[in-house]
Amino acid sequence: MIDLRSDTLTRPTDAMRAAMAAAEVGDDVFGEDPTVRVLEERVAGLFGHEAALFTPTGSMANVLAVRTLVGVGTEVLCESSAHIARAELGAHGAYTGLTMRTWTHPRGQIDLDAVRSLFAPDLGPYFVRTAAIAVENTHNFAGGAVLPLADLQALRAFADEVGVGIHLDGARIWNAHVATGTPLAAYGAIADVLAVCLSKGLGAPVGSLVVGRADVIAETRQWRKRMGGGMRQVGILAAAGLHALDHHLERLADDHAHARLIAEACGVDPAGVDTNIVVIPRPDAPGFVARAKDAGVLVSAVGPTAVRAVTHLDLSRADAEQAARVLAAL
Ligand SMILES: *Cc1c(COP(=O)(O)O)cnc(C)c1O
């Protein structure tokens, strides 16, 4: 089976497992895991921020990150198919007491006019006030779409003008970086706080980080413990992340090339395939998924008329060519 359902399906390579086995570890709740510290400092530095915090999942990283910008009864503005709105099972409302209002863009992009009109200033204790704006780069449900840096910078200027924070859900920020050549620090500069994942395209088995100011991350460390996310000899997992940053970052370009190859074979406009996700419009998506499975290719239906194929580390060039042939024939 060629599995294109997600880039989370990768299994640690032998070299990654060796790095994990050799990791120096300590009790990270005591702040004594040297490998976790190296990972946190390295990732903070990549984004030009002061500090970072290792978390088990991207969803926890998002909840912890957004929490630093908002309070109970305030709101976050985001795009309507954002992961924080659609795929975290209401975590932000449940844990943080915030509400969300959304704008909609078919490619998950920032619509600054919509953001301006949604923005709610502080009108006293009768109305919900906008406390933060959240963006997602690349945008998962918009097919791995990249948000252009200029749009992010314009949003930053607006956020500064009205005095609200920006959260960047950067689960796949690595893909945006490799696809456009935009430095990670340039993405870091537009956000007060970021969440990034090691377990998507980078191919680590587990792990995400919250990135931000040192005092904010120190407080977030307490909130992680409060949520049950304090972990002990977790350097074993941090080592996988460090290995992924060393060996799996630049090769994301291969995943992007494989996605374009599949898109072209299926008659999908490659201009709409920015990174490693291909959305194939089909009148009967569930039926198509079943027929693809019979032909040895796993893809997913993301709605009644859209099929999604995601390329990743465990997919060779030959696999991508075979998948392209199968999907095109269907
Ligand atoms: C996968 C993902 C996350 C985090 O998901 P977890 O499964 O909790 O690690 C967050 N945001 C986006 C855009 C994602 O694709």
From TrEMBL:
Residues 3-266 form the Aromatic amino acid beta-eliminating lyase/threonine aldolase domain. Its cofactor is pyridoxal 5'-phosphate. Keywords: Pyridoxal phosphate. NCBIfam families: GntG_guanitoxin. Belongs to the threonine aldolase family. PANTHER family: L-THREONINE ALDOLASE, L-THREONINE ALDOLASE-RELATED. This is GntG family PLP-dependent aldolase. It comes from Nocardioides fonticola.
